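Lab manual, section 2.4: Encoding a predicted structure.

Procedure: take the sequence of the chain (354 residues), apply the prediction step described in section 2.3, and record the output as structure tokens. A sample record is shown.
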Amino acid sequence: MTPKSSPSSYAAVFIDFENVYYFLKNHFQDPPDLNDYVLDIIRSLREELSKKGLDSLISYAYADFERLATAPQGALYLMGVSTRNVLGTDHKNAADMQLCIDALEVMYTRPDIGTFVLVAGDRDYIPVLQHLRRQARQVLVAGFRESVSGDLLQNIGADHFLDARDLLAPERVEQLEKRRTDRLRTVEEGRRLREQGLPGVPSAAALAVRAATDSDTTRMLPPGTVVAGNGVRPFLPAGRPAPRPAEEVPDFAPARRLARDLERRTLAFILQEFQKLEAKQQRRVPELWLGPFMRLLTDELPELPDYERRDLLNKLRDAGTIRIEKREGEPHPFSVIVVNYNHPDVQELHPGEE
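Recorded output:
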């Protein structure tokens, strides 16, 4: 009887350096020494793999390193990580592609490597990770939960996910969270002062808000939004048609206020897409195609699996903010989104003429 071969103790680590770098920059309000945080995560990851009995035999890091504020290549080299400098205007997609090519090459040329570790989490990696698993390779994903695609996490399972927060020292995480809280508080205080209309305040508040928003008030806000009123809304130019009379929109569900920030964020994103179409076509757009919008929503809410994104639209429909209608078309029917401009949440996020 042939003895069963023991599983390989060798691992290959593929680091989407840009993905982690820009998540830290955007989510935690542009903290200083960004590269140090990413390097700490990589160093702790290697230690964690070692505890699992895995030797990181191959390690690659991918980025357009010339675009980063400081160059981490030297520190990565000393850690035994080879860098892949991927150039191009759409450099992030190029980095994704190069990472997948290298992972497949390692799989086919190095049968002694049994574990593949991906430091990132875009849903674009799902096909290559599925292929690795079909070839009897163990697959692990490390990253910040907010930046890892819900679809990818659902695909690999929670047991194969390493949270990047656990790879940083508690005091380092505390520093990041404090910076994020302080910067967002500055934005909120500036908003309140502007709304109160205190003498002499607008200029100071505007500077504070601009400082925080210029560093991206996190990816949790859709591009092109500003803080206002009771939430966020797309910044729309004056001249948008006023809300239509109620009798013109009889098919919406009874109006109910949205209960979750995520629902309001999704509604704001819908209104933003209407704004983009109207700016492009120079006319009022009555409806938005559902299929293309769902692909945009995937990029906007990558942390959610598909079924949760669909459920968000159902919640908006049930609250009476939108309705979804079928249209006949060639070669097949399609669905569109229609907005209820009389809904109170819509009016707050999109007040029409101002």
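Check your result against the sample. Residues 170-196 form the longest helix (27 residues).
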